[in-house]
Amino acid sequence: MFLSLFISRLILKNLGALDYGVYGVVGSIVTMxxxxxxxxxxxxQRCLSVELxxxxxxxSKVFSTLLVICLVIALVVTIILQVFGPQFIEKLxxxxxxIEVAKVIFHASCITFVLNTLQIPFTASxxxxxxxxxxxxxxxxxxxLRFFLAxxxxxxxxxxxxxxxxxxxxxxxxxxxxxxxxxxxxxxxxFTFERKYYKEIGSFFGWNLLGGxxxxxxxxxxxxxxxxxxxxxxxxxxxxxxxxxxxxxGFAANIRTASNPQIIKNCVGGNIQSIIExxxxxxxxxxxxxxxxxxxxxxxxxxxxxxWLGAPPDYTALFIKLYLINAIIxxxxxxxxxxxxxxxxxxxYQVLTSVVLLSVIPISYILFENNxxxxxxxxxLICATILTMIIRVGFIxxxxxxxxIKFFLSVINQILIVPLISYLILYFVNSNFTDNLIGLVLFSxxxxxxxxxxxxxxxxxxxxxxxxxxxxxxxxxxx
Length: 479
Known about the structure:
Blueprint: H1 2-31, H2 35-53, H3 59-89, H4 99-128, H5 132-152, H6 160-184, H7 195-229, H8 232-269, H9 272-309, H10 316-333, H11 336-343, H12 346-358, H13 360-369, H14 376-399, H15 404-429, H16 437-458, H17 462-478
Helix pairs in contact: 1-4, 1-5, 1-7, 1-8, 2-3, 2-4, 2-7, 2-8, 3-4, 4-6, 5-6, 7-8, 7-12, 7-13, 8-9, 8-10, 8-11, 9-10, 9-15, 9-16, 10-14, 11-14, 12-14, 13-14, 15-16
């Protein structure tokens, strides 16, 4: 997470705000098609985990079927992009002297998309087999290579924007090859055309496709809408904000990466009590993790941006603060989606949430046409996320026999009470810390202590508190 944020600083410094914004808006054209990847990733991990949960499951055939589908997706999307992409670029608000470079990075982004699509089955295999250590090492390698690429841009004499775009493509290829080597050492590749496997994956892929389309259209489509009404510098601010959002939510999502296979396998086995226990601990840990990261950022964002970027683009700090609020609301209930994917009515869920998320873009467009400022869309996004949260909770009430009032109060505690109490305490102590790096570190430590203490008191039950006390006492005895 920290490396990814530092990489953004290096890229912004070496490319400049204008080229960084161009890269963000051109890349968004390709990234919009990653809704295929998002849908296939969810469907793939689900189907592979289900196969492992069966007594006589055929993991290799499902894995091979997944790879074939990903090959088809990569081919179809590449054709669409190459036919329509270059003409669309010419209609964007990009300086005339950067149009040709924009087309070059567009083609590089297409290559990266293909490689990321082919990587889906191999990553899904690692996660469903719960080989989290291998998955983590590959992720670390990827981010370190991206760091060295961003650092090396200052020594590049050629066109830096093109060099960076193709550098990302090369790194993606290298990571794909490592994924292939590790995954195939654990899974036998047996190409099959058995209809039942394609039908099983296709059914989940189809409805997840709608959810993936909504998510990608929301975050990448808004780049294009912003570009239509504002200059590329606003796109640069949005790109930086999305990077921070992705880093923070990705950090919290690692908890779900570890718990999802277990939740799905218990869904296959019908172990309702185990599902409820896993959801309970996953949502609470997700809340604590997102708050520990988000709260110091919220209070110290101006200093962090100045230290991180030097001269951040306008609107960056405001965008980030609003996205942090949105992330806290979303992360708390996101583990519920795993259960809905496994045993719920996926069709209705995806339709409802997709309509809510996709409505953000036309509403934002209307607001911008009426001279609302750029941050207006983030307010709309927060409202959409609250509605999505309500939909998730409603589906869980239908799927699992749980105490509704108790569960509802638990969610309210996690998205409202804990953040509010923590904010009020830290608001009064914030002025006691200097506005420098040492002050940031000390405030972050204080913030973590406050959040952990409030979380311990408010959201943990008696049994969980007892377990923590026993673990703490055991550590003291061992030392």
